[in-house]
Design a protein that fits this description.
heterotrimer, A alpha/beta, B alpha/beta, C alpha+beta, A: 2 domains, five-stranded mixed sheet, B: alpha/beta, Elongation Factor Tu (Ef-tu), domain 3, Rossmann fold, Ubiquitin-like (UB roll)
Chain lengths: ~170, ~325, ~325
């Protein structure tokens, strides 16, 4: 999914199709556009394969808790498909990866990359922002101006931010 | 794993090889001999991941044999070798060894290690394919990993069976009937927790069954791991190796390996096992599509197409340009 | 002071063989002694020097202030034990008078008079080493440690104890693929350097050991230049420029990195030992002064920027070439 040499995900221009080798599938859609995609996927999963569809406004704690519970009970052959804005998809993918789901078992469709979560290593808070990569956002934890770096943690589902003006002399 | 190899050609420098003394010989079941190998003066041998092998000098050839210990640093290695009367003579050489004999072996080489993130390890062994699985089972017990072992053996000829029963308890299920074994394998592959990895070693049909059944039941390839006795390979189509640096052209006839053709043309290539396992004879490819037949390169490396294990692999195209 | 200073110069791993620097997969077998203009280095994997106790006290302080510098994903515990049991014997061999290791099967007793440490633990028994094998290892060797797991045809930075990072964050990078960790580094991807390095590492066989060097520059003898504390040290990059003490404050920072395939766990143990030498110390070797001045002057802007040298590079070149 990502370009091979960078941690920043590059989502394909076309949405993936369900893995034909899947035996059971969990589809999670975020927002109206994400849920439209999961509906299309549900129709494409071969007959006889159990499909569960979850719909959520965003990747909040309750939907992530359901995802965690489904993974805990899943058997090999299970696949996860995520659709929605990048920050929600990354947050859900992070939960799955931390629970031991393989990249090969996850397919994603990203409907927009406007919003991102930015991790501040100075105070460890995570800020949601619409700033672009190489742009700036204030940290919600320590109020420092953060430079949004082209570096993404798969486990946190967040971009790295660092103090933009650390080298300025006050 | 037991592998029959052709005679070694140009081998890399032998530094780092282990000189070992046969400290014990155990004939546990008919036809299978276990060698206990130690340093002649005693002392620790190198640690190794479960599923590793050593390449043993067997007279005029070299054979790869799985180490059956858990891999922690210790003073002895054990290998178990099935006598193959119709083989190339490597196993017969091992079966002639006696206590006190000195043998030369490579350091341990790892090509079949357990996946550390696995939630559960499903081990499948057929016949003498039990040897790397014994190593996996021992390490799983030592490090408290969840595992189970399905083992098919001939009646009365189950190598290491008693030892495995003690080690694994009810995590071991042994079969003397192939249909029963295959049914049990299918049942296991049909219903194991996400996070399980399957490992198989044994005859080619068993490996094929596990790989095909796993794929059919939705296991991604990343969760399926196989250790083959040796690459069963056909003679292959002829092609020409073009040596980019010297500009020379080396014909590779059907039935001759690229490695042998290079050696006959006076090109020295480091190599050890000559059966696509050890990874030593890797040659960079500049152009042309390699026909990968080795057991060493990863899928990513194969797809990159920029290297070939010249002991077993060939060329899809009429010409393969090598960075030699 | 003179003696200590010259000892530091004598064993400094000066990394430049020519007047220009580019990224290379510059690996060589470990334990190969190197002779330099001032002395030499590299005969062993661990290099215990006069700064040993000071640096380990600093590591303990950094960790106490920020425990996220030590990361270990749950599946890496075997690799952590493996790293500890591989490197304690190494340290015992490097300091035979001051340390000792007694093994009775899995029961190990470790004594280190340099730090006043005496511990008995059972290999593989987590309760016998409550801080964990990785944290204990980090309390005994000056090197930072990263443990790379190998699976799915890739290497993964799944554990590490890194208190002396050169402008990166172990806490953020934990769990990334090797290629992702190096994502932000300019030039290396076009050149395929990181991909080649990863393939090389994945092919290492049990017990194989290699090493390479890397370098940057640091203001003052500050080992902890992690992203976490950037707010504390970032300004010094600018402040040092007008400071008459620049040749004493500005240091060439060289990392000697060891790459070891651990036998039991199959993990790659990546050791990073940081050496700092001020420009004034460096200039006591005229060859080094000339060579480093030339390398710094020639370095392309993007590489200088990534290494964080842009603010003071011209001032450093001026001082080095004025000598």
């Amino acid at each position: 999914m990502g370009a091979e040499h960078t941690s920043v995900p590059r989502w394909g221009s076309e949405w993936p199709a369900p893995d034909p080798s899947a035996r059971t599938v969990l589809l999670v859609g975020f927002g109206a556009r994400g849920c439209a995609i999961t509906a299309a996927w549900a129709a494409d999963v071969p007959a006889g394969r159990p499909v569960e569809v979850l719909a959520a406004d965003d990747a909040d704690e309750s939907v992530l808790a359901v995802l965690t519970a489904r993974i805990a009970g899943a058997r090999v052959g299970w696949r996860l498909m995520l659709a929605g804005p990048e920050d929600d998809v990354l947050a859900a993918r992070a939960v799955a990866l931390r629970a031991g789901v393989l990249d090969a078992e996850i397919r994603c469709a990203v409907t927009s990359t406007d919003r991102k979560r930015v991790y501040c290593p100075h105070c460890r808070a995570t800020t949601t922002t619409t700033a672009p990569v190489a742009g700036e956002t204030p940290c919600e934890g320590c109020a420092r101006r953060l430079h949004v770096y082209a570096h993404v943690s798969r486990r946190a589902g967040a971009y790295l931010g660092f103090m933009a003006d650390a080298e300025e002399v006050a | 794993m037991t592998a029959t190899l052709t005679a070694p050609g140009a081998l890399r420098a032998d530094d780092g090889r282990l000189v070992l003394e046969v400290a014990g010989v155990v004939d546990e079941v008919p036809g299978t001999r276990t060698l206990v190998l130690r340093r002649p003066g005693g002392g620790l041998l190198p640690a190794h991941p479960p599923g590793s092998h050593v390449v043993l000098d067997c007279g005029d050839r070299r054979n790869a044999y799985s180490l059956t210990g858990d891999g922690s640093p210790c003073e002895e290695y054990r290998v178990s070798v099935l006598l193959c009367p119709d083989g190339e003579g490597g196993s017969a050489f091992v079966h002639r060894l006696a206590v006190g004999d000195i043998v030369s072996a490579s350091r341990p080489r790892s090509a079949f290690a357990p996946v550390s993130t696995a939630r559960h390890h499903l081990l499948v062994a057929g016949g003498i394919g039990i040897t790397p699985m014994l190593s996996h089972a021992r390490a799983a017990v030592r490090w408290r990993r969840s595992f189970e072992l399905l083992y098919r053996h001939r009646p009365g000829a189950g190598a290491h069976l008693d030892e495995l029963r003690g080690l694994c308890g009810d995590r071991l299920t042994a079969y003397t009937s192939t249909p029963e074994m295959l049914a049990a394998v299918r049942a296991a592959l049909a219903d194991r927790p996400l996070g399980t990895h399957v490992y198989v070693c044994g005859p080619t049909p068993l490996i094929g069954f596990v790989e095909e059944t796993a794929a059919e039941l939705g296991w991604p390839g990343e969760r399926v791991h196989a250790e083959r006795f040796s690459a069963d390979l056909d003679a292959g189509e002829p092609f020409t190796a073009v040596l980019a640096r010297s500009g020379s052209r080396v014909p590779v006839p059907s039935g001759t390996s690229l490695l042998t053709a290079l050696e006959q043309a006076g090109v020295a290539v480091p190599n050890l096992c000559r059966q696509g396992v050890c990874g030593e004879c890797r040659v960079p490819v500049r152009s042309g599509r390699p026909l990968h037949r080795d057991l060493y390169l990863s899928e990513t490396e194969r797809a990159a197409g920029d290297a070939v294990m010249c002991c077993v692999s060939r060329s899809v195209d009429d010409e393969l340009e090598l960075d030699l | 002071m003179t003696t200590a200073l010259s000892a530091r110069v004598a064993r400094f791993p000066f990394p430049f063989a020519t007047d220009s620097y580019r990224y290379l997969t510059n690996v060589e077998p470990a334990r190969t002694p190197v002779t330099t203009a001032a002395g030499g280095w590299g005969a062993g994997v661990l290099d215990v020097d006069d700064d040993y106790a000071v640096e380990l006290a600093e590591r303990a302080a950094v960790l106490a202030a920020d425990p996220t510098r030590c990361q270990e994903l749950p599946h890496m515990r075997v690799a952590s034990w493996d790293a500890l049991t591989t490197l304690l014997p190494e340290l015992a061999a490097a300091c035979p008078g001051e340390t000792s290791l007694e093994r009775d099967g899995d029961r190990w007793t470790w004594r280190n008079d340099l730090l006043g440490t005496a511990r008995t633990f059972t290999v593989g028994d987590d309760d016998s080493l409550p801080e964990g094998p990785l944290a204990f290892l980090g309390s005994q060797i000056q090197d930072d440690v990263v443990l790379l797991d190998q699976r799915e045809g890739a290497l993964w930075a799944d554990a590490g104890l890194v208190t002396f990072a050169a402008d990166w964050s172990m806490g953020f990078d934990v769990g990334m693929r090797f290629l992702e960790v190096h994502g932000p580094v300019p030039r290396v991807h076009e050149a395929g350097v990181v991909q080649r390095a990863e393939r090389f590492l994945m092919r290492l066989q049990p017990g194989e050991e290699y090493r390479r060097t890397n370098w940057t520059m640091t203001v003052d003898r500050r080992l902890d230049t992690s992203t976490e504390t950037y707010a504390e040290w970032g300004r010094d990059r600018r402040l040092v420029v007008g400071d008459p003490a620049l040749p004493d404050r500005l240091h060439l920072r060289v990392e000697v990195q060891h790459l070891i395939r651990l036998g039991v766990s199959n993990a790659i143990c990546f050791l990073v030992r940081t050496h700092l030498l001020s420009l004034r110390e460096l200039a006591t070797v005229p060859e080094w002064r000339q060579r480093f001045g030339a390398v710094l002057a020639e370095l392309p802007d993007d590489m200088a920027d990534y290494k964080g040298l842009t603010r003071f590079r011209a001032a450093a070149v001026d001082w080095l070439t004025a000598g």
